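Quick one: structure for this chain?
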Amino acid sequence: MYHHLLRDQFNVSEPMTKPKPLPPQHELKTAFKYDPATGNLYRVHKNNRLVLCSHKGSQGYYCVKYRRAMFKASRLIWVLVTGEDPGIMTIDHINRIRHDNRWCNLRLANNYLQKHNRSVMTTSTSRLKGAYKNSRPYGKPYRSAITINGVRTSLGSFDTALEAHTAYIAAGGIP
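Got it. Here's what it folds into:
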């Protein structure tokens, strides 16, 4: 349900590789318990003993081995809560902390949204997203541009980096 809305909203082609299908919700509910307030995922063992799933993978995401396959905990959590397999969509951590699996921090995303949810590059001359120094010797000192669906659009020249950043946000950029 959710991924169709997102895909239609941004009209973005999806990646060619499909992730492995996730187990159904009813099966996961017998094997795991999830606390949405803390983001902790627990495996249910014999006698209803709960064991925290706390293995961090090489990229900083919590990973869980289930039925001889490794899954990102955030994807299993998505199925546990919504009952839907996100399929080719990804689960985005809004605050950019990869191991923060609180429900309020997870959202369904496609590549377009993921790319726009990045922090400012360390090589950025202005330190503000969407704003950069004008390399031309004439005109205003800062420029702004945004790329949507692979098309880069110039937003103009500005006197300050903050004005250029504001134009980027107004054009649909994520701060």
